[in-house]
Specification:
Keywords: Membrane, Transmembrane, Transmembrane helix
Protein name: DUF2842 domain-containing protein
Helix content: over 70%
InterPro entries: DUF2842 (IPR021265)
Shape: elongated
Organism: Rhizobium tibeticum
Radius of gyration: 20 Å
Oligomer: single chain
Order of helices and strands: HHHH
Number of helices: 4
Pfam family, one: DUF2842
Distance between the termini: 12 Å
Length: about 80
């Protein structure tokens, strides 16, 4: 069991919740913008002659795929687990 002094020292180095959420919000906005730009660039370069169902499948999957890195950012924003 960690001592109170060690726990107090660890709490000093933790990032404040408001700052963590601010940084996380900016990261999510940047992620969504960059991901949309990348996904659409790939679609324009490769899906020009694809059938409608191929385009539908591509945009469905890429529309959901950005959620995975966003979940990591949101978990980071929530901070360490409280014990």
């Amino acid at each position: 069991m960690p001592s109170r002094q060690f726990k107090h020292q660890c709490e000093r180095y933790l990032m404040p919740v408001r700052l963590r959420k601010f940084i996380g919000t900016i990261l999510i906005v940047v992620l969504v913008f960059a991901y949309a730009l990348l996904a659409n660039t790939i679609a324009v370069a490769t899906l020009g002659n694809a059938p409608w169902w191929g385009q539908l499948l591509y945009f469905f999957l890429t529309g959901l795929l950005w959620v995975l890195p966003a979940m990591v950012i949101i978990k980071w924003m929530a901070g360490p687990k409280q014990q």
